[in-house]
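Project standup — Tuesday

K.O.: blocked on the structure for the chain from last sprint. Re-posting the sequence here as requested.
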Amino acid sequence: MSSNEPDTVPRGAIACLSLAACASAMSLRVNDAMLPMLAAQFDVPLGAAAQVIGIFATAYGLAQWLFGPLGDRFGKYRVVAWASGACALTSLACALAPAFDALRIARGFAGATAAAVIPLSMAFIGDVIPYERRQPVLARFLTGQIIGLSAGVLLGGFAADHLSWRAPYVVLAAGFAAVCVALFRFQRRLPVDPIPADSTKTSPVRRIVVEFGEVLAVPWARIVLAIVFLEGMTLFGAFAFIASHLHEGFALSLSASGATVMLYGLGGLVFAFTAGRLVSRLGERGLARWGGIVLFTALLAIAWGPHWSWALIGCFAAGLGFYMLHNTLQVNATQMAPQRRGAAVSAFASSFFIGQSVGVYAAGRLVQVIGTSNVLVAGATGVLVVSFLFVAMHTRHRR
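H.V.: unblocked you, prediction finished:
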């Protein structure tokens, strides 16, 4: 763990990483509110249209096996900067896709390039911020991701009603390009980005095997990775269909549906600004337990609410509950294998996003059979079980 103080890292550098996280999160969620439009545009079922989300998440998860070791080899901050430039190109490729198959392929490349941004940013913060100060700093950094998740849904919904499905990708391309330039401007003012001494002595393939092998050799790391996989599968399989549920069930426009889901981000921001007090009051296990309970209740309110207005409170509460649970898991991820922090956080992100991909695929198959309400109920039940499972395993680990 680095002994660097927080003020040795320019605030602008953390802010730029947060902006990169914002663009990455927007890219992930931009299709949620566009699914009905994409289904109609390309004449495919709603579940098939959701492949643009699942393919992105799969590529994002698998690419972590590459970016973790690359971050340890060349410096995490530098890799994030280069990846932001690559994201600008892949987002532009999505905008120019001539058909649905081409869009799916482009979304796969977009997921692969975005894979470096949030995990390596978290690992960089883990390297330069002491553990006892890390959770509030991570929470502030994650405001970018939180805003991005909401803004992506809102942007997609607005484009579906008033623009073209191509427009959001053009916006993303411009945003990533601007962030890339800003990141490189701050790079020279940063403390040394820690690079393991043995990272230059082995081949890339062997480095991947060795580094992830060392992470997986830690029993607690295996538990955290399994739990975050289940979290991504149970929650985001359902989350991807909230906008569609409001659009189909209550005849809300896609813009209004996206704006409602955007309140999820507001709940996350409330957590980010109160993280320090919540941690001191509830502790890690309390955050995870209550996060699961709040998420469970919120998703049920969205699924069973007799009026769309129930989703206003439900989406806000879902954001608060998710970050109470997920931020706790993230902090554990930064410390579960400190000697291989880049690989550890990348493995964490890989498990999370592959879990999302599995969840979206399963939910996409189920939604045609059981409907969006029951998909949301299934996700609510699953994430509650996951939160209590983590609390039990964390208690056992501490003992």
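K.O.: great, moving the ticket to review. The chain has 16 helices and no strands. The first helix runs from residue 11 to 29.
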